[in-house]
Amino acid sequence: MSTIPLALVGMGRMGRALAELAPDRGFEVVARIDSDGAVTRASLGGAAVAIEFSVPAAAAANVIACAAAGCPVIVGTTGWYADLPRVRTEVERAGGAMLHAPNFSLGVAIFDRVVAEAARLFGGATSFDGHLVETHHRAKVDAPSGTAAALARTAEAASGRSMPITSIRVGSVPGTHEVVFDAPFEQVRLVHEARDRRVFAEGALVAARWIIGRRGVFTMQDVLTTPESPTPSRQT
Length: 236
Known about the structure:
Blueprint (H helix, E strand, L loop, with lengths): L3 E6 L3 H9 L5 E7 L15 E4 L3 H13 L4 E3 L8 H10 L3 E4 L5 H18 L5 E8 L9 H14 L5 E5 L5 E9 L2 E9 L3 H14 L4 E3 L1 H6 L11
Parallel strand pairs: 1-2, 1-3, 3-4, 4-5, 5-10, 6-7
Antiparallel strand pairs: 6-8, 8-9
Helix pairs in contact: 1-6, 2-3, 4-5
């Protein structure tokens, strides 16, 4: 099986983790663009797909540039979602493809569905209150995390009740999210714990393979629902 040419946009910790894992997952890294670099058809190096883990201030422009260049893009940067409606419009206008997620762990995508069902059930039990605790390494800028905010929205939509978030920044924790349902005499905890940053790289590469041949704007829930890509061919 031939390798898939891949462009990496943003060469921080996630970019380096992707570069290390990509060859073992059937990808060839043909372009490495720093967070302050320009995304153009030329700089993408003929990639069939791009993965964007840069900085919030650059993410929207990077996605639009990928769409204009005809390169589908996986977006892992968080903190830019206020621009999502505008970016969605530009991607769709260009006939491009984008998949965005605050967390590319396949376990988190499934965990989100578990949280929805739990919140639905506990929403009818007035003795239980829900809250969410998220813990990340001390260098993480956004708080709450994008994943925590997404899980809270899922729980609130399912239960019709608020889901407060507590954010902890300490040490080198890759990411732990705990959803707690607490009553006077009992407590239920649902926990997802990332043990290694490579779990996010693994999921982003799964999404990158999935999006080739598609058009539109997607999330990891779409990957779970429709696991196979229609035409995994190289784009130019």
